[in-house]
Amino acid sequence: MSQNHVSGMETSAISVLKRAVELDQGSRFQESLVCYQEGIQLLIDVLKAVKDDSKKGHYRDKIKGYMDRAEQIKAHVNQMKEDGKYHEQIRIAGDATGYSYEALFKPYISSALTEVWVEDPYIRHTHQLYNFLRFCEMLLKASCKVKRIHLLTSQDEVGYLTNKVTLCNVCISATTVCSLGLCCFVSCAVGRQRPTEQRSG
Predict the structure, then answer these.
(1) Who wins on pLDDT, 158 or 98?
(2) pLDDT higher at 5 or 14
(3) What's the burial of 198, exposed, middle or buried (CB within 10 Å: 0-12/13-18/19+)?
């Protein structure tokens, strides 16, 4: 392996691990964990390629430090999930792609999950309705035991009638999901943000 290739891997590792630390400090633990794992693998590849013993020792120390931190984050997240206190906000830039429901929610779904609460004040238009139903379908396919999904949305003050019709469509469309053993509950309230709360047990 050429020196330039090794230097390129080291530069990539530094960049990814720097991002991991930034995410870690911002309490964006799941994202930081992914970056730690990717950066650690890059450092391991560099370690395998270098010949100098002093450099090998340096890389081993770095890898150990990052692995220890990654394990701490994993343990912390798992404990918070068990306590039902884990919360993370995922920021998705406008027009971004590659964010499927499976990719976004897989880290949070476990076999103990039985109930999900979704708060979204903007379930009013057809595409928003379909997005919610796709979310329900994703839960059905996942390795969990979700039986109840609660949707809390808001009333459209300008188009109240349209909003009521949309909510009826949500209930009607959800009957297909209910026939597979999953029940959906829809209620209205005024809200501004879109947190998703999961309840297990």
Answers:
(1) 98
(2) 14
(3) buried
DSSP annotation string for 84-104: T----PPP--TT-----HHHH
**Using an 8 Å Cβ cutoff, are 23 and 33 in contact?**
no
Taking only the tens place, the pLDDT of each residue in 88-131 is 667 777 777 777 888 788 777 877 788 888 887 777 677 787 88
User: 133, 171 in Cβ contact below 8 A?
Assistant: no
Q: What are phi and psi of 114, to 5 degrees?
A: -125, -15
- Rounded CA gap, 66 and 74, in Å? 12
Written as one string, the DSSP assignment of 61-73 is: HHHHHHHHHHHHH
Which positions ≥6 away from 41 have C-beta within 8 Å?
Answer: none
Amino acid at the residue 55: K
Query: CA 137, CA 171: separation in Å to the nearest integer?
Result: 15
- In a 13 Å sphere around the CA of 105, the CA atoms on its Cβ side amount to 23
Instruction: Residue 17: name the closest of 92, 110, 9 by CA.
Output: 9
CB 32 within 8 A of CB 23: yes
CA distance 194 to 149: 15
Could you report the per-residue pLDDT of 18-42, keeping only the tens digit for each?
A: 999 999 998 888 889 989 999 999 9
- Tokens 């103990």 locate to 112
